[in-house]
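Chapter summary example.
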Amino acid sequence: MEDRSALLGIEGIDIGGRLEKMDDAEFAAYITETDAFIDAFPDWERDLKASLEEEEYMAFVDVLTLVCEQLKKIGAERYAERCVSLTNELRSLSHEKIIARTVYLLKTLTTLSVDLQLALEREGKPEDARSGGGQAESDSGEGVQILAVDDTSFFLNTLKTVLSGKYSVTCVKSGRDALKYMLNHTPDLFILDIEMPVMNGFELAERIRESGQQAPIIFLTAGARRENVRKAIEAGAVDFIIKPIDRNQVVSRIGKHV
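The structure predicted for these 258 residues follows.
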């Protein structure tokens, strides 16, 4: 990864000024720590959820401490502070509030992991290969056609509500229905869930590209496992929206590509 600039725009990473001063060995060491965070995070997430379910708060703190230490190593001090804050407030919070705070923290860290993987996986590729080359030319969003595919009505309804009035959104619940829709339509952007029956998001993305459609593809995901992010990028993904979805992230992610 010769160009280090991709790391500077990631929310939560504060290494501006430090990055430029790193020699090759220091930068390689930094990437090693980044890879360590990416690889360990899914297991940390699982362990945090399990310890909360069993109300094993000592185990919860032990894992959260590991997360905090690794976040500091990659320049994510702001997120490390959130881990420390949650640890310090455990005794004063109800179990329900601890769960809520943890869910929010894990979503934030999932987003961080995915963004780091996007930067590392796609660095050095041509710009047209990153974007898909099919963005609609509209600053306001007017006229932009989005096809959203998810087998869960809840997420489709949420997307439609969030994007109502800004983009034209068509929602379907299967890859088969998506391919049928594409016979007569050319969306400006696709939003695909990864986990779907019969035809998953990776397979659908491949079919979309095989059909000749080159609009950007954004995947919906609840996890940050490296193999899934890599498969998504290989299938044509330009970005990810992390579940549970919220308006700010959805609008921000879509706005970068249309």
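To summarize the output: DSSP finds eleven helices and five strands in the chain.
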